[in-house]
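Letters spell out the chain; the tokens describe the backbone. To illustrate:

===
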Amino acid sequence: MTLVLTNDDGIAAPGIRALLAAATALGQKTVIIAPRHEQSGCGHQVTTRTPIQVERWAEHEWAIAGTPADCTRLALTHLCPHAQWVLSGVNAGGNLGADVYLSGTVAAVREAALHGLPGIAISHYRQGKRPIDWELAAHLTAKVLLMLYQQPLSPGRYWNVNLPHLEPGAKEPEIVLCRPCTQPLPVAYQLDGEAFIYTGEYGKRNRDPGGDVDTCFAGKIAVTQLAV
């Protein structure tokens, strides 16, 4: 089957190369259609009032001067209309619980679901400024993809996957199907003159027991099924 690969970290980000490695390891045909520049936190924004420039990077790669949702739209209507799945990631940072409303990574597969196409968003939770082992991320992503391709997925639904940040030498993490956390993101600000500076800490967010935040922070791969 043919997969569209996209992200919100930009076409040059290491995460999309990890996603490509995972899909290639499973013998799948891929087309990369990703933002030219980083679009982190753009949510489901789309471009409708200005032209969207498209640059061909390689035989099966296009860089889009737009958002992840723009990439999915252009992929399904013009650049790869025969695609059967849309995969987004691997994002450098978690997209857990309420994060999905802010995430361009997740928006790319939500847009696919709106068009009746299945999709999987993959993110890698990052503890502090610790580097991500992208080779390990590719290996874990391939395992998750293989499992999810065999799971039933109704029209209008899509998968959201979060890889944990493992300690060196840790055993391979369990894949857990769980619920999305319903707790809000940390809300904390410091007053600086007439401005407020956000001081919330991602790792100290509240968690629903057994939800995706709780699962991923416990060192497991959190998989949730979401709906448009």
Observations:
- Residues 2-227 form a domain with the Stationary-phase Survival Protein Sure Homolog; Chain: A, fold (CATH 3.40.1210.10).
- Helices lie at 14-25, 68-79, 104-114, 134-148, 212-217.
